[in-house]
Design brief:
alpha/beta; 11 helices; 10 strands; 47% helix
Length: 275
């Protein structure tokens, strides 16, 4: 598939019979594992990518460094990749355009785009202009990037609890008008609230999974079209690594080695060698 075809494929997956589910990847090997397990698309996690490169989440990593990491992932797989590019690495329209062009340059088919930074939520009009600029940038390059517009009203506990649903819906409507393909509302796990969001938002709704999140089949019934695991899979892997290290340190044993992907099988995910 061409990059343009991958973007079209990613967009279509948001309207398929089953929700589009992402166990988010953070490097080429996690992306290849997912591809070989027949996941139809890959989404990255900015939190995990930042952490494995020695940075904090929340745009602690530069745009250039994040895009380089995303490019390594897109180069490793043939399926569409949705890149988690946080808030665009700066609050301006120009920052959004630079991030959109960068995403296209490294082979992404779509991107997550947040409406908050370290100072809080961006003004709704400004974020709408930034989304519109991303849409225009993709059109200019011939790649209609799939824009998953994220609003952090629930995640950051903005406003009174009873007002967050309406505020999220208001922002979603503005972002859809500006050209967003899907709306990502992390931080909401209550089934009734999810159903209200899915019903009121005129675009596919993306939910961030947590330990208490309804199952995929239940989310489908509530109207959810996209489910992301975010940085949780990376955190799970890190917990497993920590347990292995603790076994060696505290017990002097190596039983963890029996539960792993072998060296040969890991190598088999990649055919190329550097010359």
């Amino acid at each position: 598939m061409t990059q343009s075809e991958k973007a079209a494929r990613l967009r279509a997956l948001h309207h398929a019979d089953e929700p589009l589910v992402f166990v988010n990847a953070w490097d080429p090997i996690t992306a290849r594992i997912l591809e070989t397990m027949n996941f139809p698309a890959i989404a990255t996690t900015s939190a995990a990518i930042a952490n494995v490169h020695g940075f904090r989440d929340g745009e602690g990593m530069s745009r250039a460094a994040m895009l380089e990491a995303v490019g390594a992932i897109t180069a490793a797989v043939s399926v569409p990749v949705s890149a988690d590019l946080e808030g665009g690495y700066g609050p301006t329209v120009e920052d959004a355009i630079a991030t959109a062009y960068g995403a296209i340059d490294v082979g992404a088919a779509g991107l997550n785009f947040e409406d908050a930074n370290q100072d809080g939520l961006l003004p709704i009009d400004l974020q709408s202009k930034r989304i519109r600029a991303i849409r225009d940038a993709g059109a200019q390059r011939g790649v209609e990037l799939v824009i998953n517009a994220r609003t952090d009203v629930f995640l950051r506990s903005i406003g009174a609890p009873e007002a967050r649903l309406a505020l999220s819906i208001e922002r979603a409507a503005a972002y859809i008008e500006a050209g967003a393909d899907a709306i990502f509302v992390p931080g909401v796990a209550d089934a009734a609230a999810i159903e209200q969001l899915a019903s009121a938002i005129g675009a596919p709704l993306n939910i961030l999974a947590g330990a208490g999140t309804p199952s995929i089949s239940e989310l489908k019934a509530l109207g959810v079209r996209r489910v992301s695991c975010g940085g949780a899979p990376h955190g799970h892997v890190m917990a497993t690594f920590q347990k292995a290290a603790a076994e060696v340190r505290d017990l002097g044993t190596f039983s963890f080695i029996s539960d792993r992907i072998s060296h040969a099988d890991l190598n088999a995910f990649f055919q190329k060698t550097e010359v």
